[in-house]
Amino acid sequence: MHEKFERIYDHYHQMLFQYIFYMVRNREVAEELVQEVYIKVLHSYDEFKGESSEKTWLYSIAKHVAVDWIRKQNRQKRRWLGKWFDVHERDFEVSDSEPLPEEIVIQRDEMKDVYKQLRRCRIDQQQVIVLRYLQGLSINETAEVLGWTESKVKTTQHRAIQKLKKHLSDYDDQELKEVSR
Amino acid sequence: MKRREKWTDKRVEKQLDQFPDVKDHRSKAEIFHKVQQRTDEKQKSRRKQRFPWLIPSLAATAAVILGIIIVPGMIPEQDEINNDQLMTMDVEEESEQSEVSEETGEVNETVEEDIDMGIQTERVQEKEVDDVMQVLDEYESIFMDIVDRAGEDGKVASFESKDDLLSHFTTVMSEDLAKSHVDMYFQEDGDELYILAMDAPIWLNEEEPYDVEEVSTEEYHVIQEHDNEMFGHVNIIYVLTFDGDNWVVDEIKQDELG
C-alpha cells in the first residue's frame, strides 16, 4: 500500500489537489477530499485496466469525490420548502459571504472577478473549464475523465466560456449601476 | 473608477490560463498517515458487518457436501464438481479452526475478495445511475440560478424574453417541460422578463428516500413520495430520458396517493 501511495503521490498529488481545490474552492475541504481519493484509489487499484491512462483514471475518481461533495452542499443549502424568495435571499448571502482563498485574494481584480463568476456556471461547465484551462488537459483527456465524447467536451467548453463572459459582463453592469447610484 | 473594457472570449481565457497554482502544503508522510488511519477505520466498520454473513454460508457449504456424500454418482460431470468440493472443503476446515482461535490468514482473504467483488459491481452501477441523476441536479440548479440572480422585484437578470429562457432550459429539459416551466413561472413585460412569486417546482430531496427505476437504457424514472399541505400526499415521478447527446428531464408526473 505504501509503495502505491508513494508512486501516485509523487506523480499526481499536486495536480489532483489543485483540481479538487478549484472545484470545491476551499483548502480544508480539498485536503480532506484528496485523502478520500487515495482511499478509493488504493482500494480499487486492481480495477484499473489500463484502458484509459492512469492520469485520467485518477482524475475521474477525483471528479466523483468532488462532485459528490458539491451536491451534498447544494442539497443542504437549498433544502426546499417554503417560498422561494426566502431561498433567494439565503442563497445570495451564502454565495457572497464565501471568502476568497488567499491564493486568489492576492491576484488582480480582473482575475478575482473571473474566479467569482466561475462559480455561477453549471457544474459540468466548471469541470470543463478547470480541466482544460487550469489543469491543461487535452480535449481527449477531458473526455476520458468526464466520460463524454470529444464533441460534448468542445460544445460544453464553448458554452462555458460564453456563460462566464455573460456573467462577467452582467457583474460589471451591476457594479457600474451601484457606483452611479 | 471601474474598468469598462468589454469581456471577450480571449480576455476570459487569458485570465483562466493565468490562474495561480495551488499546492497542498502538507507533507507526504502526514497525508499517508491520514489515509492509512481512514482506511483502517473503514475496514473495521465493514468487518463488523461481515461476520454474520460468513456463518450461513459455511452452513450452506456443509449441507451441499453432506448431500454429495449421501448421493454419490447422481451428479453429472463428477470431476469438475469434485474438484470444487475439495476446495471448499479445505476452506471450510481451515475456517472452522480459525473460528475457534483467531480469524487469520487465507480464510479472511477469500471472504474479503468475495465482498470486494460485490462492492465493485455495486460501484459500477452506482456510477451509471449517478451520471443520469446529475441531470436532476442540473435541472434544479438551472432554475434556481435564475431565481438567485433575479432582482427583488423578480426581474430576471440575464434573459430578456421567454424564447431566450426556453433555449436555455432545453439544455436540461425536454422542449415540453421547458415550455411549461417558462409559461408557468415567468412573465414578459415589455423588454423585461419577470419571475412570478410562487412556489418553485418540487425538487428531488436527496436526503429523503427515493426510488430509481431503469425503464430502458435511455429512460429512468426517479420516484419520491411527498406529503405536505401544498401538494397533498403524492408520488412525484421524474422521467429522465437520453436525447442522443445528453440526459434531460423529460416530464414530471404526479401520482395521488390519497
Automatic annotation (TrEMBL), chain A:
CDD domains: Sigma70_r4 (cd06171). Keywords: DNA-binding, Sigma factor, Transcription, Transcription regulation. GO terms for molecular function: DNA binding; sigma factor activity. The keyword Iron-sulfur does not apply. Belongs to the sigma-70 factor family. ECF subfamily. The keyword Transcription applies. It comes from the Bacteria. Pfam families: Sigma70_r2, Sigma70_r4. Residues 8-75, 125-166 form the RNA polymerase sigma-70 region domain. InterPro entries: RNA_pol_sigma-70-like (IPR039425), RNA_pol_sigma-70_dom (IPR014284), RNA_pol_sigma70_ECF_CS (IPR000838), RNA_pol_sigma70_r2 (IPR007627), RNA_pol_sigma70_r4 (IPR007630), RNA_pol_sigma_r2 (IPR013325), RNA_pol_sigma_r3/r4-like (IPR013324), WH-like_DNA-bd_sf (IPR036388). One of its GO terms (biological process) is DNA-templated transcription initiation. This is RNA polymerase sigma factor. Gene3D superfamilies: 1.10.1740.10, Winged helix-like DNA-binding domain superfamily/Winged helix DNA-binding domain (1.10.10.10).
UniProtKB/TrEMBL annotation, chain B:
The chain crosses the membrane at residues 51-75. It comes from the Bacteria. Keywords: Membrane, Transmembrane, Transmembrane helix. This is Uncharacterized protein.
